[in-house]
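Below is one such protein, fold included:
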Amino acid sequence: MERTPTVKPLLTFARPDKLNLKPSFQRGFIWKGNQMVCLIDSIIQGFDITPIYVWKNDPNNKKGKVSVIDGQQRLTTIIKFMNNEFPLKKNKCHSLPEELHGKRYQELPQEIIDKIQNYNLDVVEITGELEEIEEMFQRMQGGTKLKPVEVRNAKHGAGRDFVKSINDFTFFNVFRLSKEKLQHDEILHQIIALEINNLMPRSFRNQDLDKDKNFIAALKDGISEEMQNIISSTIQYLSEDAPVFEKDKEKLARINAVPLYVIARNNKEKIASFEFWKWATSFFTDRYPEAYKVSSSNSSADKENFAIRIELLQKDFDNYFNESEVKEIV
C-alpha cells in the first residue's frame, strides 16, 4: 500500500464528479447541524482541518474519481453547503460572525465565498487492494465507534454484496428506516440470520449475531443461490404493493419488518401482495394487541419476544383470511 500526501484546492476537489463518497465499506452521512456549521466556520476562519484520505485505484470507479476512505462527513458537508442545502447559524464554535448567521452559500459576501473556494485541503492519496483499504477504514474510525452493522458493512464479502443488491426495494420505505444509517442492511442481516436458522425464532441482539459463526461466514462467503432467490422473491413480493406513507410518523416501526417478512415468506403463494398489505395495515391500525406491543418494547430483540410477535401475526393472518369476521387477539 502506497500513500502520497497532496494539497487539493477545495473548489476543484470537493465535487461529486471527482469523488465516490459511498464506496461499499463506507457508512452513510450522519453529521448533524452543529458539526456541519462548525466545519464551514473553520474553513472561513482559515483553521486547519484534518487530512482527507482517498483510495486512488478503486476498480469500481470511473476514470478521474477517487473513493473516500476518511473524510466523507467533511466532504459531504462542504458539497451540501456549496449547493445551498443548509444555512450558517449560531453554533458551539462561537467564532462565526453574527452577520453570517442564517446565510446560505450564495448569500455570503464575495470575500467569504472567495475564502471558501480558495481553501486548500490536505489530501492523502492511497494506492492499495480492497482488503487493505477496508482494514484502514476500520482503524481510522477509532475516534468514532462504529455500530455493529457498520463494522459488518466495512468487511468485504459475497454476503455483503448480496445485501447491497436488494437493499433499495420499496418494502423498506414502509418502515422508519434510514438507509444512510445502514438500517436497510441491518434488516437484511437479520433476515439472513433467520433463514440460516430455518426461520426458527432466534435472538437478534448484535452481540449474538456477531457470535454466530454461520451468520458471519454467510456475510463473508455468501449464501446459497436458493436462499438468495427466496429472500429476493419475498422482498420483491413485499414491494409490489407496499403502502406509501407521506409522513414518517405514519410509517410502521422498523421492529415489524422482519416479522412481516416471515409471514410473507410463509404465505406469499396463497395471498396477493395487495391483500397481504391490506391485512398488515389493518392489523396495526385496528387490532394491534397489547401482547404484541409489550413484546415490541423491552428486550424486543430477544428470541422469546420475536416468537410472540410471529405467533400473534400468524394467528391474526389466519383469522383474517379464513373467517368472515376477524377475531380480536388479546
